[in-house]
Amino acid sequence: MSTFTIFLFLIIVVAFLLIVVIMVQNPKGGGLSSSFGGGGSQQIGGVKKTTDFLDKSTWTLAGLMLVLILLSNVAINRGSSTMESKALDTESTAQPLPAPLPAAPATTPVTPTEEAAE
Known about the structure:
Structural class: mainly alpha
Radius of gyration: 36 Å
Largest sheet: none
Oligomer: single chain
Helix content: 55-70%
């Protein structure tokens, strides 16, 4: 298994976890936060601590995803390092110019008055 495949798997897992954490949150205090401590102020863990945990989890997962994406770019297998762009190679892209077209035979233009006179 290549390094890129491992990074790809980790990015998918972090993306799934980030989706779950964001879906659990509710900006108005609903969601999972209200289930754990919305009924009273004497609850263990309280709404504030659950919201703080979800907020920190979101930022941590987002940062982790950014780092994994940047590291996966380094891990991409680019093949041999001797390959260069063929577009910049002037020797292989220089094609001979096509032969010029033969000139049209010289004819004298016929004016409409000459045609009518004949």
